[in-house]
Amino acid sequence: MAQSNHSDHQESLYLAKFAPSSSLVTLVLAMVGLGILGTAVGIFMNPARGWAGYLTAFFFVTCLGVGGLFFATINHIAKAGWSVSIRRLSEAMTSFMPAILA
């Protein structure tokens, strides 16, 4: 029986930093502009419903951020090893918290 040589099967994995294409950046900026325009039109056309919709969306997004912060904090305090693979997701959910405070 032949022994396998593990050095023959080694491959290096290189993952480059994500760099969005210019068309993706344009699409995202267009969606942001459309959202701001829609909010402004909603507030102008019917201020009571426009502000209620804005506050509902703000509360929802804020709860997602605080939930991600809570999840990451509890896993850090508990020194949970299993959450390493999904911890970045909860950290990304909290990345816009400074924008909420502005």
Please outline the helices and strands:
Elements: H1 22-45, H2 47-77, H3 84-93, H4 97-101
Helix pairs in contact: 1-2, 2-3
Keywords:
102 residues
Could you characterize what this model shows?
The protein is mainly α and 102 residues long. Helix content is 69%, strand content 0%. It contains four helices and no strands. It has helices at 22-45, 47-77, 84-93, 97-101. The chain starts with 21 loop residues before the first helix and ends with a helix. The mean pLDDT is 87.
A few lines on this structure:
The chain is mainly α and 102 residues long. It has four helices and no strands. The longest helix is centred in the middle third of the chain and has 31 residues, at 47-77.
Mean pLDDT: 87
Number of helices: 4
Helix and strand element order = HHHH
The quaternary structure here is: single chain
Distance between the termini: 68 Å
The fraction of residues assigned to DSSP E strands is: under 5%
Which range best describes the helical content: under 10%, 10-25%, 25-40%, 40-55%, 55-70% or over 70%?
Answer: 55-70%
Beta strands, count: 0
Main sheet makeup: none
Strand-pairing-aware structural class: mainly alpha
| Rg of Cα set | 22 Å
> Judging from the principal axes of the Cα atoms, what is the shape?
flat
Low-pLDDT parts are: none
